[in-house]
Amino acid sequence: MRIRSSNYIPLVQYPFTSPRNAVTELTTTFCLRRRVLYAALFTTSVFTLFYLLKYSFRDIDGDLEDLELIFPIDAIPSLPTSYLPFRVPSPPPTSQSTLVKPVLDLPATCLDAYYVHGDACSSPLPPKLDLLWTWVNGSDPLEQQAKMDVQASYGPTNPWRPATSSTQARLYRDHDELRHSMRSVLANFRDYAGHFFLLTSDFPIPATTPNLAFSASWRLGQVPQWLDLSKQTTEGWLDGDVSLQLVHHAEIFRPYDRTNFNSLAIESQLGHVGAISDNFIYMNDDLYLARPMSPASFYTSAYGIVLHLQSDLLVSPVKPTARMQGEWRSMGESNYLLSERFGRRHRPYVVHEAKTVSSALLAEVEQMWPDAFSRAASHAFRETAGPGSPGDINTLFLHTHFVVERAREALLWTWAVARVGGLNDEWREAEARRAWEELGGTWEVAEGKKRELNVQAGRRETLETERINATLIQSGVKDGLGKTTYVFSSMDGFAYATLGVIGQPKFPAFTPDIPERNLPRCFISYDECFAGHSKASDVFKNVAFGNPKCGDCVISALVRSSGPLGLSAFLPPPDRMLSSIAGKVPFLSTPGEIPHLPLAGKWEDGDFSLRAVMSAARFQMVRTWALQLLQRYRYVIGTTPSMFERLTSPKQAWSVLNRIEKNKDAAFLCINDDVVNGDAEVATAFRTWQGQRWRVPATWEKPTELEPVPPPPEAPPQPPTQPSSS
Asked: N or C: which end of the chain has fewer CB atoms below 10 A?
């Protein structure tokens, strides 16, 4: 549900000083309760006035149903925290839908030619992309009070209690990054941006006196202190044709017990944000767009989702031990799940920059591992003392590799089960011989010899620069690739086949300029990959998951057989039809019939036979179904100039910020707060630099005397000058 202004009534702002010890904590709690009491009394008056006005004017103007009361908090702009009371949906959402959601399909008129010949195929109008930020204000008094309350609920031996290390503090510091992250998008991506969504914390309305009570369905939603609440409309806040919507944790968490401080838990619930675009860009508040960007850096209908991965840094499939902490623990837990479902392998690191997310595929990921998502949502802190086991998942890591692995799985299933296997899952000598010969092998071998095959990848034209530019223009992306380069496409096979366990400097490339000696090679043993199976689905399971190297090499051989473009060697014949035994439902008559393979969390538990997978329809053209399956998981891997910087101290911060200003190429920018000393000085330098770099405020921001005057259009922002050591 898109949040409307009528869901909110602005409340109040507070100043706050963090508690330092037990005495100050008690004092702060007392003062906090007194301040909240005043706020609650004021809010009660507002509510009373609201209903009195509605009652008094009920016979005069029916439009007063949408009456909104605005508390004039802009009169005190120096206060750092504000809230919006909101009502949680009743009953609150409890579970995710079991229906598979549709993606933005390619037009049926060109889908076959796209996969057979590699012809261009795209939707007629390029969609705008929504952007979603997650953010909390760590200095918020209710945030701090809620954190103390949750901490107190953990026993001294509970592995999920928060860690006491100093790294916890940096997770919640705020240097006005969010405001300038949004400004950077407006400056460099406005023409392609749809709606902005901000996902942030909420708190129970504090109990201040027995005589003053609020319904449990009401909570206080955190709001950035710079957001001008008086400019809220029925569509949120507007800056031209870009709107900003607020979403709070209680509205999307499943389950939701209390205020959550765990970024991994929050990310596990992103799929529940309603009314967001089919493909959206996920941002942390430390991420910026530093240069004008094209949608080709994120998503196009012609090429699918754009993923940014690091080929020389891999995550192990081994389940993490208790000693592993931080981001790598969550990635390890996620890769363990991926390996249980798609086969054991090392997978590349997902670069920490703006990420493209498919709403439909994120929902599909959650359907595959519902327990892991629910478990992550229940953990209040990211850095824990235990740690508990199993650890939290990394949702964005899971989503990225899910797309790649589902694309690989779809290719192998389409060939082994939908093309070669029998309609009733038979895999006899005829099917085995056909499969082997389609790969380029010789069936008849001399006595004592084994059926073995050396495969060399073929050259491909999918990612030729001229072809990409022409395809993008045809699809409506007039800016072309912009700062991004496409280095691998799902139309050329499987991206991870050559990475091994230590990674490679680059992903495999097959463009015509690659010397033949540099094209990847692999080896297939018939006995290891195909022998001993009587069902097509069992052959598929073995090559896809049981012996992943078999499947990787099968894909390489079939891509070569398909020629320079397309994937024709994988496809069933156009006239192959599966008639259902008891089918009464027309093909694709309900959302539940969207083509997809089993959602089992472990590959051994899935039934991949043709009839089991395609059982929903009365009769089906197998090729049509397979094409719909393949197009669901299209992707390209892109590289975009970027900078990842850490601020650690005042002197180092000035050096970093000046280095960023001198870099005229980087389009993605991440600046981490890793300050160990001089936080106040770093904060001043960082805020000053951000204000100079992105000077133009959004319309939804409060006016402030401290806002720098925008420079003339031709004058670039000047880097801050490092203060003298004297």
From this structure: C
